[in-house]
Amino acid sequence: MSYAGTGHSTDAGEVSGVGDPIDTSEPHIAAAIRGGQRAELVDRYGILPGSLEIELTETSAASDVDQARMTMVALRVLGISLSIDDFGTGHASLSHLRALPFDKLKIDREFVRQLDSSTDNRAICRSLLSLGKELKLAVVAEGVETGEELVALQSFGCHLFQGFFFHRPLDVDDFVRLMRNPTRSDPNAGHMLCGWSCGPLG
Known about the structure:
Elements: E1 2-3, E2 14-15, E3 22-23, H1 29-34, H2 36-45, E4 52-57, H3 58-62, H4 65-77, E5 81-87, H5 94-99, E6 104-107, H6 109-112, H7 119-134, E7 138-141, H8 147-155, E8 160-161, H9 172-180, H10 189-197
Parallel strand pairs: 4-5, 5-6, 6-7, 7-8
Antiparallel strand pairs: 1-4, 2-3
């Protein structure tokens, strides 16, 4: 799960930082966020569910499609956006992608690496970007680590990226400092600002 403005993120399929982790396959997760968890989110972090994005892996989304759909619909009613992480590496089928109310598809690093030399990876990335466009899903390329990968993805029409090319992971305090002055004493600031100019990072 991630939320805007703080730099917090957790493993896909869990909500943490607001008490004990909550499995997204748990049917009462939406009620928990709507109730006590929501109050803590607001009081402790100053954020609302509309600022949240929950990432689900293909495997967790496909384990019980009917339950996952009910939970995801309830979360979207709260304003929470939902993304499918590491797409193409798990067990979900295209029917799951069609049936479940995702907002965003994230291309796994496995398909992003070596785009300058792998014709197979280039074909897969192009196909996933086209699929996302037709399904009206935002598409994020994960694990962008080189300028060559970024240029290739941009040439395919990708506008959302994340990866070490833009910045290494930061703890909350360092993230806040960087956001207040992103160009001071930071070797990655230029890359990061370039990435933002191509579209908001997921």
